Predict the structure of Phospholipid-transporting ATPase.
Amino acid sequence: MGMDFSTLRTLISRYCVGEENWVDSRTIYIGHKEPPPGTEAFIQQRFPDNRILSSKYTFWNFVPKNMFEQFRRVANFYFLIIFLVQLIIDTPTSPITSGLPLFFVITVTSIKQGYEDWLRHKADNSVNQCPVHVVQHGKVVRKQSRKLRVGDVVFMKENETFPCDLILLSTSRDDGTCFVTTASLDGESSHKTLYAVQDTKAYNTEEEVDSIQATIECEQPQPDLYKFVGRINIYMDNEPVARPLGAENLLLRGATLKNTEYIYAVAIYTGMETKMALNYQSKTQKRSAVEKSMNAYLVVYLCILISKALINTLLKYVWQADSNRDEPWYNNRTDTERQRHIVVRAFTDFLAFMVLFNYIIPVSMYVTVEMQKFLGSYFIMWDDDMFDEELGERAVVNTSDLNEELGQVEYVFTDKTGTLTENNMEFIECCVDGHIYVADAICNGQVMPGATSMDMIDSSPGPGAREHEELFFRALCLCHTVQVKEEETVDGIKHGIHQGKSTSFYISSSPDEVALVEGMKRLGFTYLRLKDGHMEILNREDEIERFELLEVLTFDSVRRRMSVIVRSSTGELFLFCKGADSSIFPRVISGKVEEVRARVEHNAVEGLRTLCVAYRPLSPEQYTEVCHMLNGAKLALHDRDKRLAEAYDAIEKDLILLGATAVEDRLQEKAADTIESLHKAGMKVWVLTGDKMETAAATCYASKLFHRNTQILELTTKRTEEQSLHDVLFDLSRTVLRQHGGMARDSFSGLSGDCTDFGLIIDGATLSAVMRPAQEDSNSGNYKEIFLEICRNCSAVLCCRMAPLQKAQIVKLIKASEEHPITLAIGDGANDVSMILEAHVGIGIMGKEGRQAVRNSDYAIPKFKHLKKMLLVHGHYYYIRISELVQYFFYKNVCFIFPQFLYQFFCGFSQQPLFDTAYLTLYNISFTSLPILLYSLIEQHINVDILKKDPSLYRDIAKNSLLRWPIFIYWTLLGVYDAIVMFFGAYFLFDNTTFTSNGQLMTTNTQMMFGNWTFGTLVFTVLVFTVTFKLALDTHYWTWINHFVIWGSLVFFVVFSLLWGGIIWPFLNYQRMYYVFMQMLSSGPAWLSIILLITASLLPDVLKKVICRALWPTTTERIQSADKLYEGHLSEFTPLASLHAPSKAGGHRRGSGNQGNPRRSEPFRKKTMFTRWQKQPDYSTFTPLLRFADGHSKHAYNGGAGPETSV
């Protein structure tokens, strides 16, 4: 293991004791033993313990930290100020009116966030208290994982997960190797081989391991999973022997030991310094787009409030300029008031007006929003469609703050292994010289009777081809790096070869290889074992054949092939090579290339993973030359990889093609359907995976992320080696922009039928180069912008060989782009945690790779297919509901407080409230709160089935469309209009008044006593009825609960007013509202004015809705009208596309532009029913187009460009 350590030596030489805490390298004493005297100074460094922390609060900092986060919200901070003002100065209303709601909001939110963090603490503790075995004084002792220290020697058994980052000292295997799976780190569930230190691999007992005297010098922790540089100094007879350490010696936290009985290893990075923890993002508070809109609106209303208070304060002093008005005879000032400076008086008045009008800022909206989010999240958890019987799991909501964000997603970043796929490879077929073989031939869905383990679909090959066929099967049995594990089951008896057939099973670093070897087993050739340098296979005649394994030319992603050189028992030498078609075909000199190529292309279109197999017979002289080339390259210290690549290139040539294989990586159920639905909904889907490019690309085709007509753009290491990164980026940019006429496609516009569909593939190394900060002397500053420009114009992007932190960087890059799109990340392993935390919405899948992703996510679902309903149905509903809730709250508070502002012009700006204190306090808490809360929980503006069937409806709510400024201004103006109608309507209706004998105002025509409280109560009654009816008009989904709550809240208001004004008053010593409500209702004109004013207030909104629906209906409104026509059964009629507004030329959505040319993987389309709207907006004539007599319908059937669409 020759390695250049000049870099490390430089780093170590810079090490200075005590100069600074952070140094470039660390020294670890194995087993905490001092080195022999005289060798080097023993300086014990301090390292963190092995505790993992994912929670945000502790017991001590919860209150201050949580309070700080809560008062960062504009509304909470504002109400705290108002509450303090009410405590300090004499104000028109009681401090309780703002203090109580604020206390309620803060308490509810802190309880909710505290509970969520307590769950995280619980999860952390279960990990930190996990038992670990450590070697101490020659014995194995148990201790908790959190107590593990750097330098401890750890004893691990098979299937245990490593508690920290370790250097492998020795294993139960004689060759010093062990096998691990890193599924929770990089998503690969295949077995990887790691190597023990050569000088310590023979130490196999606790006593022997405890006797090791050694130190490890290595780099400080860094997040790259695939890099590690260090060396070990082993003291033998007081003389240190230095050995290099690399990534092949490093066991990472989170990886699992496989197919190895036990290992001994030393801890080098612990706790939050492990590579897995360094790949975690820190937890930050996520805020939804709706909440940001709410805060923006709040600032606007705050400005309105301040301007109202300023205007009133100014006008008060203009009014009081007349001394008679300033100090009338019935309201003389005290001496202290006269002596107070005018600035102080003005400021006090300003604050008093602020308090009087402060109800325009709806604190109760925050309470309602918190309750709506908390209660609404249970609908996801209770959804039976998102229950997985196989796992027995339901969807889980970890953070209810982001429910509405599910309806705003523009980019979906998904992991591949275990998220899109089940991670089960299955051998499908092989093709030898054009003849196709499948294991167990199937005819009409039935296994053919008497079928042997091998059947052929095509005609039988001749005797000459038989030899070729067997050579092909042998090639696949020999050209791999598969390990064999004997099954140990049934009463502990070891089972190996059973009745001439092996019952062992295979493990490998590549699941494809296992699938191929198992496929060969089903076709009659069984790989048995690698023993003493010989590979043994069992042929069809149950004879064991032995081949000496001479060389393995390992696979790498640039060559995209691997080879073995073997010697048969007869002494013949063969080079067997398998790899991607693009890397095999150019090296082939004979064989049935065209037949095999045709089959490979056919299988690739079907989304299968294909490999080609070839061979080359070698003469002894050629083999000697090959050995000389390989040994020269292996011993090189400089440019070893380059020299090996050149040697492999020279050896793997003049091949004879044998055939090809097809393997399927099973997609998760309905994964392709889900991705297609997300595309139709206007979302861009990116696959971010740690897997190989070929594997990932095949999955992308199978899951319909890439289509047959997708033009693939590659931005990979292979390409950047041929050209500079600068040139490659500009080439790709030109290609994309030329196609789109120099105009970047909007992320929500569809792909027209004649438009090339681009798909980008990028790997981790190239991404690092793109993301690298610009050097001052280079022109690389705009790489990120060019990369983003290319990505924007691609319908799908695949990022392979990604480190976990790179996944988060990609998400961050898109988040920070100029459009600031809403992102969603979904994954199932610890390697996905960073991107889950980085994205606006993080979703964990309850897969096979542990629960880290689920623990750190905002939502967790059992399978990828559940994402469709979560976004298209739940997300859609949550967004519709909360946007109505926010707009409605601002509207009803404008209606509530604007009459108060107008009233000041009629009461000498004396800060006299228009409404009674009870009404002021209960308006938002009781009279109008329940109807909107219920609306925001159960409203369904469109049927669930329609939302699932027509994903494009999701586009209607994209880009926060229901909380845009024009809509906000419309609601505000509507509120102002309603307030003016209520106030001046009541004022003019009761303008004709005279004094009664006892000094009260009385209307001449009704003999009704009319004081300021009667006037205020009349306005308030109209107000409560108007805002409640407005909500009733907006409700589409009526249930008995809606009826009960809406009409019940109006009844409650009437009953409360009667009780408050007539029955309870003697106990409260509270006389101003005595009999006011009853007196008002005893008047006929009062009833008439209430009805007239409610009608006048609601009329403009009703007219606007009717006109807009008739002339410019949205897709949603068309479907609502049609659904009413079909009494809720519209979803049974297909397609819904006929209800969409006719699209402009070239504006077809993805998936519908290519109907005349179906993909080969979809041989036929069912044509069931056609529906269309007639041209005039007559919603009662919804005609089925099953009569082909009509010219329009023929045109529709032939795929015309009208609104009709075939299914």
Summary: The longest helix spans residues 866-903. The chain has a mean pLDDT of 78.
